[in-house]
Amino acid sequence: MKRLFVENLRVATVLAVALALILVALRAFDSTEKPASPHVESLRLAPVPSSAASSAAITGSGVQDSKLEWHDATEFDLEGKGWQDTEASYDRLPVRAKTIVPTSVWDLGKQSAGLCVRFETDAPEFDVRWSLTSGNLAMPHMPATGVSGVDVYAADKSGHWQFVQIGRPAKQEDNITSISTGAQKGHARAFLVYLPLYNGTSKLEIGIPPGESIRKTSPRPAAASRPIVVYGTSIVQGGCASRPGMSHVAILGRRLNRPMINLGFSGSGKMEPEVATLLTDLDPAAFMIDCLWNISGLPADEISNRIKNFIRIIRKARPLTPIVLVGQSNIHAAAHPTGPTRAQEYAVKQLTAEGVKGLFTIPGKDLIGSDGDATVDGVHPNDLGMERQAEAMLPVLRKALSSGTAGHP
Predict the structure, then answer these.
(1) Close Cβ partners of 169 (under 8 Å, ≥ 6 residues apart)
(2) DSSP3 helix / strand / coil % (the chain, rounded to 5)
(3) What is the pLDDT of residues 165-194, one digit of tens each?
(4) What b/e sequence results for 73-87 when a residue is b if at least 16 CB atoms lie within 10 Å of its CB, and e otherwise?
(5) Is 360 helix (H, G, I), strand (E, B) or coil?
(6) Is the peptide bond before 102 cis (omega within 30 degrees of 0)?
(7) Are 310 and 270 in contact (CB under 8 A)?
(8) Helix, strand or coil for residue 77?
(9) If residue 121 lies in a helix (H) or strand (E), which one and from where to where?
(10) What's the pTM value of the predicted model, to 2 decimals?
(11) Residue 288 bridge partners (DSSP)
């Protein structure tokens, strides 16, 4: 019995020593390498933290250089804006639309999707500084760079646009990013800055070192000066591209070397007659309509009637302008053509029988593929899906633009 007691005492002593050593080690770790508390993201529209440390890391220089000469972006060419009489500089709809279109369309029209600024500079570097109308910088399925960032492209010697750098938003006011241009004194390069897709832009400035030049770009050739107007859903607005230049509307603009007017309204591309009437203010090279996802819950005959009425309003005011209608995308090959796509095809057939000319269609089956890799949620395209959509749309748009109806004065 005595031997057993001694043995147990020995074991207890060993365990006590081991525990003491562990506690000492834990205290040392706690005092020198204590990890930060875990942060759990909530699944909602949420602003990105804007601490000074993260701002410097996220936005390039992260420091406002007081020695730069700042130019308001409205000094340069602002493309993608169909109306000049807007409530704010970077709104997409005219003031009078506030009492005409649904409230959701008006509110979304204050987001700067599709707007871009073109300029030329020979500065070796420049800064972009921008402020937003909302502190909600990101969405659960779309990053802050796409929702609230700016996206910079430069033209190479052959005139093709190449990605240069993204401006990552860290806060609502005075985000800043620095761009190295590769330009040389006396040899200006053309730049393109896309504005945020799902946030409004309240201010945009370009800062260059003193003594460097910056100016508007040369006008586009007359044959490529008239824009393409794209009206539709959240997908048209740019959901869910990782950055503004990767929306399919922006990609099409670079591929066709033509201005684009993005009239995508998330959840609100419903082809109301009031919106059709508003679109007749514009005189583009072509209209492209992509609304089926937002009216897919309607009965087939109502979808067809809504499409026919919408097209008739546009065609009455713009008898020669090509109109391209986009089918409904779907990641499942067996789903094509979807019910809404069939309803649209029926409407086009009836309109054609009435004598309406200049109508073109893009099949939904060609838009995003069926491998499941091209969306973030089964519906909204990621960058791969945006690229696939642009590739599917390009040949039809080129055909429409080369048709006899596209070249009217």
Answers:
(1) 48, 58, 59, 130, 132, 137, 144, 145, 147, 148, 149, 175, 196, 199
(2) 35, 20, 45
(3) 999 999 999 999 999 988 777 789 999 999
(4) beebbbbbbbbeebe
(5) strand
(6) no
(7) no
(8) strand
(9) strand 116-121
(10) 0.84
(11) 230, 324
